[in-house]
Amino acid sequence: MDRTRPLVGGALALAVASGLVLAGGAGTAQAEDRNVARNAGFESGLADWTCSANSGTAVASPVRAGTAALKATPAGHDNARCSQTVKVQPNSTYRLSAWVQGGYAYLGATGTGTTDVATWSPGSSGWQQLTTSFTTGSATTSVTVYTHGWYGQAAYHVDDVSVFGPDGGGAGEPDPVVPAPPAGLAAGTVTSSSVSLSWSPVSGATGYHVYRDGARVQSVSGTSATVTGLAADTAYGFQVSATNAAGESARSATVTARTAPGGTNPNPNVPKHAVTGYWQNFNNGATVQKLRDVQAQYDIIAVSFADSTTTPGQITFNLDPAVGYASVADFKADIAAKKAAGKSVILSVGGEKGNVTINSDASATAFANSAYALMQEYGFNGVDIDLEHGINATYLTKALRQLSAKAGPGMVLTMAPQTIDMQSTGTEYFKLALAVKDILTVVNMQYYNSGSMLGCDGKVYSQGSVDFLTALACIQLEGGLDPSQVGLGVPASPRGAGSGYVDPSVVKNALDCLTRGTGCGSFKPSKTWPSLRGAMTWSTNWDATAGNAWSNAVGPHVHNLP
User: Fold this and answer.
1) 185-217 in b/e burial notation, b at 16+ Cβ within 10 A?
2) Which of 6, 77, 361, 541 has a beta carbon 3.0–4.6 Å from 286's, enabling a disulfide?
3) How far does the signal peptide extend, from start to end residue (predicted)?
């Protein structure tokens, strides 16, 4: 979220808008299909790969499998592009994938003879699989596949590149063999209705099947999953198998986990169905507001944004004179008045330009201590996590739990991840949300400034539609979050975002589809979630600029959900 201009999500969002969109999976593999990339795991150094400006090197750590991986470091005007030309068959479909971690990482293919493709990740502290697919033209016999980072960002790592499809005669990787059973299966966070699982990666595996009491319940590409829909205070046995084009491994040893007795109801003071709005502590051309001017339809008001300090993890807040307060005391009085009216006022951390790094025990403690001090000083009800430059789920979990222990059970905790951050339970943001589920109020994902994304049905959806909202929300609803912890985040007006604005009627249809089963587009969920929390917008200021059209339409609709 942007402090200075309508939300465009930075250069990355512009790159996505210009063609970096996530494509669907390839068709059914044929007998001659194989990985046509050479030295796909960088076990032979950079053989068969070319990296711009000597930006790439083979390293022994971190690696996903084998003994080596690629590390490429952007510098100056170089984005650390590493590429390889592979032999392909004309008129054929190939599934392109790679495992990445570290800084921003792109994966794509050019010279396909049809539509060139690419996908990307905003960075991750653990291995994350990027996947897309392309179809070759009638005369195409070679395609260039590539990875690259982003200007001024940290180094990225790549391992286990795969260009899977008909053999083009280029002596690619050997045909796959059935992988070994996964090891290290362990149960993690447990709630009254879900159990999170993790396991060690298996060399050569492209996916994993998760079994509950002998029945397959999930298929994932990463090395973690959350099994939902479980009964409270009940023991279950879990196993995992590894898969690739050659077949499925034997199942792992069984791990038993018991669900918690009964559910949790964090933040009982927040309405069952709530509207969240971000209030701008700056002037970017939208209507300048004081908190007292924020429309009454908003139940949670996120003050945007906290500022970082020179101490890692530590935050502070500086009231911008541009918003017109005569004094800090006047601002604090407005917070108190909103709270007296039954509203929650929280402090948002991050935004498009905000970068608070929490990657150690010391920075986690610094965050918790400074956030709590600001809650005490200003009267904030809690915090919103809107970090858009990558997070470390392990240490941010520690920070939020320390803050919760100080603030008590009434603390309001919200999050606003980007769409790419919530595509699977293996992403850092999703892992964070599940790890703090017992203290989490709502995740209002930003359904804007986004490329096309996968829905929970495995199909690709483009932003700006009912289906984009419902099919992506379904991932969170089926991935372990309680329906009360899921909200739809959209711009308040066309000027509030670079792309992805939808008319309030589309938001209302999406809410009805998810809660009542009506108003759906082509995607129709298999069930409804009547306790869905509601909706969020950027921002109350852009809403006011448009005459409060968004909150006047969406607010009453949210408050009248079942």
Assistant:
1) bebebebbbbbbbbbebbebbbebbbbbeeeeb
2) 541
3) 1-23
Cβ(22)–Cβ(455) under 8 Å?
Answer: no
The pair of three-digit structure tokens given for residue 270, joined into one six-digit string: 């927040």
What's the full length of the chain, in residues? 562
Q: What is the DSSP string of 469-495?
A: HHHHHHHHHHTT--GGGEEEEEESSGG
Q: Is 144 exposed, middle or buried (0-12, 13-18, 19+ CB in 10 A)?
A: middle
- 3 state DSSP class of 541: helix
Phi and psi at 5, nearest 5°, equal -155, 170
In sequence order, what DSSP letters do the residues of 142-156 get, joined into one string?
Answer: EEEEEEE--TTPPPE
Residue in 173, 388, 428, 478 annotated catalytic: 388
CA–CA distance from 29 to each of 92, 175, 290 (Å)?
11, 13, 59
pLDDT tens-digit map of 504-538? 999 999 999 999 999 999 999 999 999 999 999 99
Q: How many CA atoms lie within 13 A of 505 on its CB side?
A: 1
- Cis ω on the peptide bond leading into residue 305 (within 30° of 0)? yes
pTM for the full predicted model: 0.60
Regarding beta strands 195-198 and 69-72, do their DSSP bridges make them parallel or antiparallel, or are they unpaired?
unpaired
Cα Rg of the chain, angstroms? 24
Token couple for 436: 């703090």
CA gap 71, 147 in Å, rounded: 11
Residue 348's SS3 state is strand
Nearest to 443 by CA among 346, 534, 543, 561: 534
Whole-angstrom distance, CA of residue 242 vs CA of residue 179: 6
pLDDT in tens, 463-513: 999 999 999 999 999 999 999 999 999 999 999 999 999 999 999 999 999
Q: What is the DSSP letter of 535?
A: E
Q: How far apart are CA 335 and CA 301, in angstroms?
A: 10
Mapping DSSP onto H, E and C, the string for 21-60 reads CCCCCCCCCCCCEEECCCCCCCCCCCCCCEEHHHCEEEEC
Strand-by-strand arrangement of the 224-227 sheet: 186-190, 195-198, 224-227
Residue 136: CA atoms inside 13 Å, Cβ hemisphere, count? 25
Contact by Cβ (8 Å): 550, 492: yes
User: What distance lies between CA 157 and its chain's CA centroid?
Assistant: 19
Tell me whether strands 344-351 and 315-316 are parallel, antiparallel or unpaired. Answer: unpaired
The neighbouring-strand residues paired with 240 are: 210
377 is catalytic: no
d(CA 94, CA 558): 43
What is the C-alpha separation between 108 and 131, in angstroms, rounded?
Answer: 9
Confidence at residue 434, expressed as pLDDT on a 0 to 100 scale = 92
d(CA 179, CA 489): 40
